[in-house]
Amino acid sequence: MSSRVTPSGRLLLVEPQFVLRRTVSTMARDMGLADVQEATSPAIAEKLLFESRFDGLLISLDDDGEALALLQRLRAGEASHPRDLPVAATATACDVELALKLRELDVCRLLLKPFKVRGMLEVISALGAPEPLEPN
Hints:
5 strands; Rossmann fold
């Protein structure tokens, strides 16, 4: 029988890739980093944001801009969560324009794909940090 650690907070993980999403959420739960709710798309995430309370959001940026649009609505106060909900993102690439947009949307961490699961777990742990995350 394995002993489970009590998660420190509720996290919404938005990741379309099943294996990555499931691996990260299971490990985060088992390590007590967060109670993870999974969503496969920004549309599903938005619905979950209205139905439940979360302490953080980790979202995969998509090519069609749905994820950024969701973040804009969240920061504009159009979701049932505080505007300052801690947010981290994953992306396949990041140019200056995207970096500036993420800064404007107060995204505290960006993890570029491909990455090791450990990197995503570190980001989840940082989302639960009691103080605001500052750029290095």
